[in-house]
Design a protein that fits this description.
The chain has helices spanning 8-15, 22-26, 42-56, 62-67, 71-82. It is an all-alpha fold.
Length: 83
Protein backbone atom coordinates (compact mmCIF):
# COMPACT_ATOMS: atom_id res chain seq x y z
CA UNK A 1 0.00 0.00 0.00
CA UNK A 2 1.48 3.35 -0.99
CA UNK A 3 1.21 6.58 0.96
CA UNK A 4 -1.78 7.81 -1.02
CA UNK A 5 -3.82 4.70 -0.24
CA UNK A 6 -3.44 5.45 3.47
CA UNK A 7 -5.51 8.61 2.97
CA UNK A 8 -8.48 6.84 1.34
CA UNK A 9 -10.33 5.85 4.56
CA UNK A 10 -10.35 9.47 5.80
CA UNK A 11 -11.34 10.79 2.36
CA UNK A 12 -14.20 8.26 2.27
CA UNK A 13 -15.37 9.48 5.68
CA UNK A 14 -15.32 13.11 4.48
CA UNK A 15 -17.16 12.56 1.20
CA UNK A 16 -19.67 9.93 2.40
CA UNK A 17 -22.47 12.43 3.21
CA UNK A 18 -22.32 13.87 -0.33
CA UNK A 19 -22.12 10.68 -2.45
CA UNK A 20 -25.08 9.79 -4.67
CA UNK A 21 -23.61 6.65 -6.29
CA UNK A 22 -23.14 4.18 -3.42
CA UNK A 23 -21.99 1.32 -5.67
CA UNK A 24 -19.02 3.30 -6.98
CA UNK A 25 -18.39 4.63 -3.46
CA UNK A 26 -17.85 1.08 -2.20
CA UNK A 27 -15.20 0.56 -4.91
CA UNK A 28 -13.46 3.91 -4.48
CA UNK A 29 -9.88 4.21 -5.78
CA UNK A 30 -7.33 6.91 -6.45
CA UNK A 31 -8.82 7.31 -9.95
CA UNK A 32 -12.38 7.84 -8.71
CA UNK A 33 -13.80 11.12 -10.04
CA UNK A 34 -16.03 12.94 -7.55
CA UNK A 35 -18.52 14.22 -10.15
CA UNK A 36 -18.49 11.50 -12.82
CA UNK A 37 -18.14 8.40 -10.62
CA UNK A 38 -19.77 9.42 -7.34
CA UNK A 39 -22.40 11.86 -8.70
CA UNK A 40 -21.37 14.55 -6.22
CA UNK A 41 -22.65 17.95 -7.37
CA UNK A 42 -20.36 20.96 -7.69
CA UNK A 43 -21.90 22.77 -4.69
CA UNK A 44 -21.08 19.79 -2.50
CA UNK A 45 -17.50 19.77 -3.82
CA UNK A 46 -17.04 23.11 -2.08
CA UNK A 47 -18.34 21.53 1.14
CA UNK A 48 -15.86 18.69 0.69
CA UNK A 49 -12.99 21.16 0.25
CA UNK A 50 -14.01 22.90 3.48
CA UNK A 51 -14.25 19.56 5.29
CA UNK A 52 -10.80 18.56 4.00
CA UNK A 53 -9.37 21.86 5.22
CA UNK A 54 -10.83 21.25 8.67
CA UNK A 55 -9.81 17.60 8.84
CA UNK A 56 -6.20 18.21 7.82
CA UNK A 57 -5.78 21.74 9.22
CA UNK A 58 -4.72 23.12 5.82
CA UNK A 59 -5.77 25.96 3.51
CA UNK A 60 -6.65 25.09 -0.06
CA UNK A 61 -6.34 27.89 -2.62
CA UNK A 62 -8.37 28.13 -5.84
CA UNK A 63 -5.66 26.56 -8.02
CA UNK A 64 -5.38 23.54 -5.74
CA UNK A 65 -9.16 23.30 -5.43
CA UNK A 66 -9.55 23.15 -9.21
CA UNK A 67 -7.15 20.17 -9.31
CA UNK A 68 -9.14 18.19 -6.72
CA UNK A 69 -11.41 16.34 -9.16
CA UNK A 70 -10.38 12.81 -8.21
CA UNK A 71 -9.52 11.05 -4.97
CA UNK A 72 -5.88 10.74 -6.01
CA UNK A 73 -5.57 14.40 -7.03
CA UNK A 74 -7.15 15.46 -3.74
CA UNK A 75 -4.66 13.38 -1.79
CA UNK A 76 -1.79 14.95 -3.75
CA UNK A 77 -3.05 18.41 -2.75
CA UNK A 78 -3.34 17.35 0.90
CA UNK A 79 0.18 15.93 0.84
CA UNK A 80 1.55 19.14 -0.72
CA UNK A 81 -0.20 21.35 1.84
CA UNK A 82 0.91 19.20 4.79
CA UNK A 83 4.62 19.66 3.93
Amino acid sequence: MDDKALFIPKIKEIIAPYVENQENFENISLDTDFIQDLDINSANLVDIILDVEDAYQIEIDNDAMNRMTTVGASIEVIQEKKK
